[in-house]
From TrEMBL:
Pathway assigned to this chain's UniProt record: Porphyrin-containing compound metabolism
Enzyme class: oxidoreductase
UniProt keyword Heme, yes or no: yes
GO MF entry, a single one: oxidoreductase activity
Reactions listed under catalytic activity: Fe-coproporphyrin III + 2 H2O2 + 2 H(+) = heme b + 2 CO2 + 4 H2O
EC number from the UniProt entry: 1.3.98.5
Cofactor(s) required for function per UniProt: Fe-coproporphyrin III
Keyword NAD recorded: no
Alphabetized PANTHER family for the sequence: COPROHEME DECARBOXYLASE (PTHR36843:SF1), HEME-DEPENDENT PEROXIDASE YWFI-RELATED (PTHR36843)
Keywords: Heme, Iron, Metal-binding
Domain of life: Bacteria
Name of the protein in question: Coproheme decarboxylase
């Protein structure tokens, strides 16, 4: 696959009625869904995360990278027609473009989480929108606040981040994704960031999806 340009976070909820189907039918449905993911692997890279038992509204989170939104749409539609996908509801879907940061001139591996390296145990992802007042500030003032944000982030090397741009394409302005092996450290990072000046310009940063990285087979098996 060429370098991805688009990312989608797709959170799915399974109809409880599906779990009451015979085991053989459920296994057949899981296999059809699994095969559909593999069929589009050349166009869409998929990372699987389990949320079964953690959230009331979603049991599977797929982070999907593609060269175009067309490829994402077509493959998402196919997934929802394949096997257990027919029993799934889209609880959340965030779409954004992978573009260079306005505030980081030379992003390191810590700012490019999910695109390279090995996956960490946990994913935390949420939609993010700034207030209108943020954009009324001068570029220098905004850069200064972001420099503080970046500096604090670098104090927590156990946490990696991916930022995607959704402005004009989705309800949120950004998709913010973090991965870490230590949720307590991530919580410390979030607490530190809440003390920054830039925090006052946050309009929306929910829902927060916390999920566990699993091979696709394992994540599907937890559905029932």
């Amino acid at each position: 696959m060429s370098a991805p340009e688009v990312v989608q976070v797709l959170a799915l909820q399974v109809d409880p009625a599906w779990r009451r189907l015979p085991a053989s039918q459920r296994e057949e449905d899981l296999d059809a869904f699994r095969q559909q993911v593999r069929t589009t692997a050349g166009e869409v890279q998929t990372l699987a995360y389990a949320t079964a038992g953690l959230r009331a509204d979603a049991e599977l989170v797929l982070v999907r990278f593609a060269v175009s939104v067309d490829a994402l749409q077509e493959s998402s539609s196919a997934l929802l027609r394949a096997g257990v996908g027919r029993f799934m509801r889209v609880a959340h879907s965030f779409v954004g473009l992978l573009r260079p940061s306005r505030y980081v001139k030379r992003p390191g591996t810590q700012e490019q989480g999910l695109l390279d390296g090995e996956r960490a145990a946990y994913l935390i992802v949420y939609p993010f929108t700034k207030t209108h007042d943020w954009y009324r500030l001068s570029p220098d003032v905004r850069q200064g606040m972001m420099n503080e944000h970046i500096r604090i982030g670098h104090d927590f090397p156990q946490v990696r981040q991916l930022l995607a741009y959704s402005t004009g394409l989705d309800d949120q302005e950004f998709i913010v994704a973090y991965e870490t092996d230590d949720l307590a450290v991530f919580q410390d990072l979030v607490t530190a960031l809440r003390d920054t000046e830039g925090r006052r310009y946050t309009l929306r940063d929910q829902p927060i999806l916390t999920a566990i990285h699993r091979p696709l087979d394992d994540a599907l098996r937890q559905l029932g």
